[in-house]
Design a protein that fits this description.
Structural class: alpha/beta
Strand order of the largest sheet: 3-2-1-4-11-10-5-6-9-7-8
Number of strands: 11
Radius of gyration: 20 Å
Helix content: 40-55%
Number of helices: 11
Largest sheet: 11 strands, mixed
Shape: globular
Strand content: 15-25%
Low-confidence stretches: none
């Protein structure tokens, strides 16, 4: 497998991206194409030898740029060149920690959508009490139609079957209550449609406070709701652990207790880190595209590459195509 990696994407690029790519070359069965400023990449690679190729791209799309404008104007950027290489089948997947909007816009313009998909979605695996739960959309579509949530459910279910080896994933809608009549008109309409979809294990609504019980495998929502939910749990997790550190410094007894608990707390913190699963997957595009967190370190980049390999090796895109082909036309 050949994985194309955006060497200039993310807060700590190219250093952490290159380190993650080198780790992947040493530990995973793959080849790497690094796309970005060649001199900077070579400097980070040093004397490293492995199955990699560098494709020079002088421009960088920053996080504060308009995604569509940047994709159209910066043809020599690492994102545009990387996606173009993927389109030309020079690689099997593209991994980037760069501008999310630009990746989505570039994915649509350059790669195109899967047949039967109106809106691609960003999906992320989130650790819970029982197992990882796939949440989508977490940022690609602020406004959706009922049929878009149906598409998300079908794609998410197929992805979960292959990625997590679950034969019949339980699918739910993130909502303000578990009752069928709860929610806005979009959610209520989607609920009615999902009940009629064959070969989909739809189990109804799930409240945000119950999400971490892990009773569902796939949870769908619009990108506005999903993004707020994801960033809330990220922020609260950081607040909680920072608060615990602060409290342990208030007395000698607390400090000793903190030292004794430190290994257990670290395991808990690591278990809650969704970047362990490789960041986010852009589902609904005609190729494999993995989006790592903007603040990704080398470990997160490595996990993103590993996730991309898993996606390709299990041929998840083809399986989503089959499931979408079998989905009867959904009316608004």
């Amino acid at each position: 497998m050949r994985i194309i990696v955006d060497a200039m994407g993310g807060d700590f690029a190219p250093r952490e991206v290159v380190k993650g790519a080198m780790k992947a070359l040493m530990e995973l069965n793959c080849e790497i194409i690094l796309v970005g400023r060649e001199e900077m990449i070579k400097k980070e690679m040093g004397d490293f030898k492995g199955k990699f190729e560098i494709v020079n791209a002088d421009e960088i799309i920053t996080n504060d740029e308009s995604p569509v404008k940047a994709i159209r104007s910066k043809k020599d950027s690492s994102i545009v060149k990387g996606l173009s290489l993927l389109k030309e089948e020079k690689g099997d997947a593209f991994v980037s920690a760069g501008n999310t909007g630009a990746l989505m816009a570039g994915g649509l313009f350059i790669l195109g959508r899967l047949s039967g998909i109106e809106r691609p979605a960003i999906a992320v695996l989130i650790p819970t009490e029982k197992k990882p739960v796939l949440l989508l959309d977490v940022g690609a579509n602020s406004d959706v139609k009922p049929k878009n949530l149906v598409e998300f459910a079908v794609m998410g279910s197929e992805f979960y079957k292959e990625a997590m080896k679950e034969k019949d994933p339980k699918v739910g809608i993130l909502n303000i209550g578990t009752e069928e009549e709860k929610g806005n008109i979009v959610v209520k309409s989607a609920y009615a449609l999902l009940k009629e979809v064959n070969n989909l294990n739809f189990r109804g609504n799930v409240e945000a406070r119950d999400f971490f019980k892990g009773d569902f495998d796939v949870v769908v929502c619009d990108g506005f709701t999903g993004n707020i939910f994801l960033k809330t749990i990220e922020g609260f997790g950081k607040f909680l652990f920072d608060k615990m550190k602060l409290e342990t410094k208030k007395s000698f007894t607390y400090s000793v207790g903190g030292l004794l608990l430190k290994p257990a707390l670290k395991r808990i913190k690591d278990s809650l880190d969704y970047s362990e699963y490789g960041g986010a997957i852009l589902l609904g595009l005609d190729k494999v595209l993995v989006k790592c967190h903007g603040s990704s370190d080398s470990k997160a980049i490595f996990n993103g590459i590993r996730a991309a390999l898993n996606f390709v090796e299990n041929d998840i895109t083809s399986k989503m195509k089959e499931a979408l082909f079998g989905l009867k036309e959904v009316k608004d």
